[in-house]
Write a structure and sequence with these properties.
It is found in: Cell membrane; Membrane. Its main location: membrane. It is a multi-pass membrane protein. By secondary structure, the chain is mainly α. It contains 19 helices and no strands. Helix content is 66%, strand content 0%. Helix 7 packs parallel to helix 15 and helix 9 packs antiparallel against helix 10.
Length: 464
């Protein structure tokens, strides 16, 4: 008996299945997991740089970004960024609640994976910005901010950059993996958040923080998570397991290496000492700079991206002293300025020979191809992203601060006590709470001896 003829719906499903490539699917699933790994990496990086009495709150906010944006992306974020009937600025609610996305031909044949992968980008972006909350921001308003900011700031920028209808995409702007939507937007938002919160207690405009990073090991651990995850962040943006994706991973790694070396040398010239924090900051700077151009540039250009990224981000850490804004973790310097520099370098070094490694025909791209107008496109996109993120972030925070219960700043007593205690009630290091209370008074030799007999840690000064 002959097989029954398939219904049109079944035939469409069978045809769709034949278009899928298992290697591509495996790579995008892996890349999504790698980008997710980056978010606790950001948390460890930030918590290690901050004071230990607020370390756990930063980890909490970074992980909360995954949950809050995960819901926002399902609810309307994906539709606002990638709906096929989007305007030049923002999408519609065509896919509200992820309606009608199965077997869609908008980003076929892997729309479902595209939603998952881009959702991780949406989650890590406010996690990068929320480091500005260090030591002085209340947690509930920060969580509300993550949801609102993702909707009003991230989604429109993602739309105009990556949606085919977006004004930057139509203009010809190049941004392979998030120079503007991720790094410029988050870095600028962190600057605005720092400005609206005000300086931390004890902040000194001349010398900055009177506290050193409390756990450099956490900074290294966070850097490792980020470096590994960036292979998925950039390499996965090709949305295929092909030669261009492999080249993207290669140039990403080269830029990170050169950024780390450059920052270390810049610090060495000042202090005649090597810095682990400098190495980690430099690696992140190189990774940020290469992000927008990672699918467009050759390995020799990646060396330049890393060196320039390390230099500009290193010197940009001084900007907060010039403008008097307490950017606690130098987020604007590394992500805002690094992303801006990476966008401009992409306009110079984008190479059609690299972009065509996936088998497609590509028009001339950057200055190396003789396409000189590209630098103007990159500059326009970068300035628009920076201005939009800063103004809208300030407006969001200003309005939130007027709402009862959503005041941004923790009280001075809460700040002195530490956000881990007052906002969470949990601590990154339990022994700190013992030594804190013992250090509230001046220790005599006798009390030190008694403490030693009991095995209790003591300190002659109050801990932070």
């Amino acid at each position: 008996m002959a097989d029954a003829e398939l219904s049109p719906e079944a035939q469409a499903a069978a045809d769709f299945a034949e278009t899928l490539n298992s290697g591509d699917i495996a790579w995008i699933i892996t890349s999504s997991a790698l980008v997710l790994l980056m978010i606790p990496g950001v948390g460890f990086f930030y918590s290690g740089l901050a004071r230990r009495k607020s370390a756990l709150s930063l980890l909490f906010l970074c992980m909360m970004s995954v949950a809050v944006v995960g819901f926002e992306w399902f609810f309307w974020g994906y539709s606002l960024a990638f709906a096929s009937d989007a305007s030049a600025f923002i999408g519609t609610l065509k896919h509200f609640g992820l309606m009608d996305v199965m077997r869609s031909d908008e980003y076929a044949p892997m729309t479902t994976l595209f939603i998952l992968f881009q959702g991780m980008f949406a989650a890590i972006t406010p996690a990068l910005a929320i480091g500005a909350a260090a030591d002085r921001a209340r947690i509930l308003p920060a969580i509300v901010f993550i949801f609102v900011w993702s909707t009003i700031v991230y989604n429109p920028i993602a739309c105009w950059t990556w949606n085919g209808n977006g004004w930057s995409a139509v203009m010809g702007g190049l941004d392979f993996a998030g120079g503007t939507p991720v790094h410029i937007s988050s870095g600028t938002a962190a600057l605005a958040y720092s400005l609206m919160l005000g300086k931390r207690t004890g902040y000194n405009k001349t010398n900055g923080l009177p506290y050193r990073p409390h756990n450099v090991t956490h900074v290294v651990l966070g850097t490792v998570f980020l470096w590994v995850g960036w292979f998925g962040f950039n390499g996965g943006s090709e949305l295929a397991a092909n030669e261009r994706a492999a080249m993207t991973c290669l140039v990403t790694h080269i830029a990170a290496c050169m950024g780390a070396i450059t920052w270390c040398l810049l610090d060495l010239r000042l202090d005649n000492k090597y810095s682990v924090i400098g190495f980690c900051s430099g690696a992140i700077s190189g990774l940020v700079a290469i992000t927008p151009g990672s699918g467009f540039v050759s390995p020799w250009a990646a060396v330049i991206f890393g060196i320039v990224g390390g230099i500009v981000c290193n010197f940009a850490t001084k900007l907060k002293f010039l403008i008097g804004v307490d950017d606690a973790l130098d987020i604007f310097a590394v992500h805002g300025i690094g992303g801006f520099a990476g966008n401009l370098l992409t306009g110079l070094f984008a190479d059609s020979n690299i972009a065509s490694l996936n088998g497609s025909e590509v028009d001339p791209l950057g200055w190396v191809d003789g396409h000189y107008i590209q630098l103007a496109y990159q500059l326009a996109d970068s300035c628009a992203g920076m201005a939009y993120s800063f103004v809208l972030t300030c407006l969001i925070l200003f309005l939130m601060n007027l709402v009862p219960g959503l005041s941004l700043r923790a009280s001075k007593s809460d700040e002195d006590e530490g956000l881990d205690d007052t906002q969470l009630g949990e601590f990154a290091y339990d022994y700190v709470e013992i030594s804190r209370h013992l250090a509230d008074y001046t220790h005599s030799e006798h009390s030190d001896e008694n403490a030693a007999e009991k095995g209790t840690a003591v300190s002659p000064t109050k801990t932070d």
